[in-house]
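COMPLEX REQUEST
Ligand: zinc ion
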Amino acid sequence: MNDATTAWTEVADRVFQRRYQPCDVTVSVILGADGPAVVDTRCSLAEARELREHLRQLTAAPVRWVVNTHVHFDHVWGNAEFAAPRQTPPAEFWGHTATAAAMNRAAEDPEAAAFKAELASRGPEQAAAMAELVEIAPDHLVVTAHTLDLGDRAVELRHFGRGHTDGDLVVQIPDADALLTGDLVEQSGTPYFGADSFPLDWAPTLDGLLAATGPDTVFVPGHGTAVSTGFVRAQRDAIRAVAERCAELHAGGVPLAEAVAAGGWPYEARLLHGAVERAYAQLDGTVPAAG
Ligand SMILES: [Zn+2]
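STATUS: Structure written out below.
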């Protein structure tokens, strides 16, 4: 198995990115004197085992910290490969409180069970992956910010607000002027507005992220190649345009079923059903306001 689509790329000083299929998901590694921190773990234990092999190209040290940028399966389902009994001593698992809560809820959720059954039905390899899946949610939790001490450098785990999910955690590496965005930013695809997204909050969250970074910051998206601040600003503007168009249609009394077809979107309309549904729910007040 070799599902890497890139080699390790040092996007900033001792900060490495590698992209993997399926999902073109980014895995990032920050090297520190006390060990490596790995950000996101791919879609299965088998994929995480391949990741572990690839990590040996960077360091002989075991993974000391795992950070999950958010709850989605392509970012968290490899976690258990870095916990006992598969790794001893185990890594520490870090994430936002909302990410841990969502992972724990998913364990009981019939929709999540149906999704897993659908994945398992795709073929023998997928069935084996689902059979051995062990889900480990982060137990070191962040609400707004936490500094991770890697021994010779500090890494900031920061939550700027809701957007792609309610638990989006970014990883800022000040000494390298780099920031790992998770899926708050996507380069290889359109930002994904799912059933757990917050379209009205997303652009303000990116405003906060941009205010905390500089003109030369390197941004590593959850999917795609590293980008500049100009790219993030443009994506922020497009996401804001989606939110504003939703608000306009909602205020004009356009029913949900007709809103996507009304047009005026910065992205392909067929990709915006989730955005419109969630924005309408936020505008109707059926989604709780940010805490
Ligand atoms: Zn995601």
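REMARKS: The domain at 9-284 is CATH 3.60.15.10 (Metallo-beta-lactamase; Chain A). The first helix runs from residue 45 to 55.
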